[in-house]
C-alpha cells in the first residue's frame, strides 16, 4: 500500500505499509489494510494461520470485514464487530470447502489523539513515545501457549525465547467455534509512532532495534520498507507485514 499523508484540524499523520511472502513461503497468508478520513483512521493486520489450509482466505476475510465496517461508518467503540463478521464468514467457507483455517487479527482506530484496539492472536501493535526518552510499549498481548505460561510465571523470558511451542496459537478467529477479543484504549501525543506487525517481522527484530528504527522515522513508508529489509536479511522464513503510523 502507498504512503499516505493526512492533515486535518484534529490530527496530522502519515501511514505506510508492507506485506511480503518472505523468502521461503509459497504464499503470503498475511493481509493488511488502512483507511482514513478527516477525523478518523482505521488499520488492520491479519496473519492467516500457518499449518492450516488457505490461511490467506482467512486473513482476507478479516480485512474485508474491516472495509465493510469502515464504509458503514460505524462507531469505533464497536471494533469487535469486525471480528464477529470475519469469524462467521471464515466458518461458513470452512464448512463449505471442508477445510480448517483461521487468522490472527490486530485492529486499531485513531481519532482526536485517542486510540482503540481490538485483538486476537499473536499479531502485535506497538507504540513508540518519542519524548525526551523514547519508550516502546507493546499494546496487545500474544495469545500463544508460551506467552500465557510466561505471564503466569511458569516460564522465564529466556526459556520462552526459543521454546518449541512459541508459535502455538491459543486464540484466533475462524479456527474454532469460540474466541475472545482483547480490547484496549488510550491517548497519545504528537510525534508518537505506532507499528502493527505480524510475527514474521517482530520475530526477527529485537525491541531495541525497533526503538532505533521507529524513533528516527521521517517517512512511514520508508520505515516500513526498512523493517521489511531487515527481517528479510535475517532469513525471511515467514510472511512479513507491517503498518507504520507516524503522528506529527
What does this structure look like?
The longest helix has 18 residues, at 80-97. The radius of gyration is 17 Å and the shape is globular. It is built from seven helices and eleven strands. The strands form two sheets. The protein has a six-stranded antiparallel beta sheet. A five-stranded antiparallel beta sheet has the order 3-4-5-6-9, with helices on one face. The protein has helices spanning 55-71, 80-97, 145-151, 157-161, 199-202, 207-215, 220-233; strands at residues 4-7, 12-20, 30-36, 40-48, 103-111, 114-120, 124-130, 134-138, 182-187, 193-197, 240-247. It has a single domain (4-247), classed as 4-Layer Sandwich (Phosphatase 2c, domain 1), CATH 3.60.40.10. It is an alpha+beta fold and 248 residues long.
Name of the top-level CATH class = Alpha Beta
Under the CATH scheme, which architecture would be assigned?
4-Layer Sandwich
- Helix coverage percent: 25-40%
Helix and strand run: EEEEHHEEEEHHEEHHHE
Largest sheet entry: 6 strands, antiparallel
Supply the helix-strand structural class. alpha+beta
Low-confidence stretches: none
- Total beta-strand segments: 11
In what order do the strands lie side by side in the largest sheet? 1-2-11-10-7-8
What's the tally of helices?
7
**First-residue to last-residue Cα separation:** 21 Å
Kindly state the mean pLDDT as a whole number? 91
Write down the Rg: 17 Å
Count structural domains: 1
- The named CATH superfamily: PPM-type phosphatase domain
Coarse morphology: globular
| β-sheet strand percentage | 25-35%
Might you state the CATH topology name?
A: Phosphatase 2c, domain 1
